[in-house]
Design goal:
Low-confidence stretches: none
Mean pLDDT: 80
Shape: elongated
Structural class: mainly alpha
Strand content: under 5%
Number of strands: 0
Number of helices: 3
Distance between the termini: 28 Å
């Protein structure tokens, strides 16, 4: 839960900073990738807790979330921001 809190704070601070520098930052695909990557973490926790996902199912979902995070970092690095 601490990781999700730290990630939430980092995304919120980045959003506030981006809003000051680039007022229409919501049209940037990097923002949407970051939010999607952020959303995968609480969704995986919810599925493990309430849906009873265990073993390979939750492992595949977690790996997909990690790949999404790496992909979003590559997009950010490629565009130089």
């Amino acid at each position: 839960m601490l990781r999700l809190g730290c990630l939430t704070v980092a995304i919120a601070v980045g959003a506030v900073w981006s809003l000051q520098v680039y007022p229409q930052f919501w049209s940037d695909p990097k923002v949407w990738l970051s939010l999607l990557a952020w959303g995968s973490t609480p969704f995986a926790s919810w599925c493990a807790t309430w849906r009873g996902w265990r073993g390979p199912r939750i492992a595949y979902f977690t790996i997909a979330g990690f790949v999404l995070v790496v992909f979003s970092m590559l997009v950010v690095r490629q565009h130089g921001i």
